[in-house]
Amino acid sequence: MREAWLALLAVAAGFALSFLAMGLFWIAMAWPVQALVVLPFGATAWALARWSGNPRRAALLLLVGATPLGLLFTLFRDREGSHLLPVLMVVLWALGTLAGASLAAGRPDGQAGE
């Protein structure tokens, strides 16, 4: 039962973070500020991966939650009429999620392998 709640939490967190990013886009926040959304994605992936003990699954479920609005986000254009920056923002979400999960996948004592 705990696994089901963790899965639901991961999907909901991914959706909530993508909703936050969409809100920043909607109010015309500067692109560098929007790029900082990578930090909450990474922190959430790290926390979920540490809590669940399965970093791959946590990252996958977080990205599944972010997918619907992420796909919508990539359809928008920037001031120059390009899709490049919205696509870059969604790629940053994914990279932040993968970075957080990979940090959580390290050794629990925090020491590098010998």
TrEMBL record:
The chain crosses the membrane at residues 59-76, 83-105. Keywords: Membrane, Receptor, Transmembrane, Transmembrane helix. This is Lysophosphatidic acid receptor. It comes from Ramlibacter pinisoli.
